[in-house]
TrEMBL record:
Pfam families: ECF_trnsprt. It comes from the Bacteria. The chain crosses the membrane at residues 6-29, 41-64, 168-185. This is ECF transporter S component. Keywords: Membrane, Transmembrane, Transmembrane helix. One of its GO terms (molecular function) is transmembrane transporter activity. InterPro entries: ECF_trnsprt_substrate-spec.
Length: 199
């Protein structure tokens, strides 16, 4: 039975805690037009996947989803939270954020060593991860809400168009800034690359 290295466990724990705190404190929701909010709760999942691979992203997504379910069941903040007591809405979509982000990151990055990647391509890979991970969350959660009949598809489509692109853009920007900064710190400390990502 494979055991995660201490580094991956630590990263998963820290980023999971950040995602949970952002949800509990509501700091992970940025006010948007018409009283709606743009969420950045998926960002720690994306960053974890980029830094440490899809399994770590999967674990962070699992803990993020479980915290969302528990919060909806124990301390709901509105009528929408009732829907998130269903794990197929609150948990399952979040499991796929990390693997989707990691796959897009690796697809754009290619198989070269990190220190051999041009800065523009590396930035593009981080942006792709941020966009893809966020859109995975948006599309799957909203689709689940529609399939289970919590909201009409017309409303879901409106929310997707109104919030989806903004959430994806913000996620991409935060992912780019944080991971690029972390990479520069790693190089300054003499590390040749972030880590050995899982194949």
């Amino acid at each position: 039975m494979a055991v995660l290295p201490v580094r991956k466990i630590a990263v998963a724990g820290v980023l999971s805690a950040i995602a949970i705190v952002l949800g509990i404190t509501r700091l992970g929701f940025i006010p948007w037009f018409s009283g709606a909010s743009v969420t950045i709760l998926q960002v720690p999942v994306i960053i974890g996947a980029v830094l440490e691979g899809p399994l770590v992203g999967f674990i962070i997504g699992l803990l993020f989803g479980l915290s969302s379910l528990l919060q909806a069941a124990i301390a709901p903040t509105g009528p929408v939270d009732v829907a998130f007591t269903n794990p197929l809405i609150s948990v399952v979509p979040r499991l796929l954020i990390g693997p989707a982000a990691w796959y897009l990151y690796k697809l754009v990055l290619g198989r070269k060593e990190l220190n051999q990647i041009p800065p523009a391509r590396y930035s593009a890979a981080l942006i792709a991860a941020g966009l893809g991970g966020s859109l995975t969350n948006t599309v799957l959660v909203l689709s689940a809400l529609g399939l289970f009949g919590f909201f009409p598809w017309s409303l879901i489509f409106t929310v997707a168009i109104g919030n989806g692109p903004a959430e994806a853009a913000v996620s991409a920007a935060i992912t780019l800034i944080i991971v690029a900064a972390y990479t520069r710190i790693g190089h300054a400390m003499g590390k040749s690359k972030l880590s050995k990502l899982e194949e």
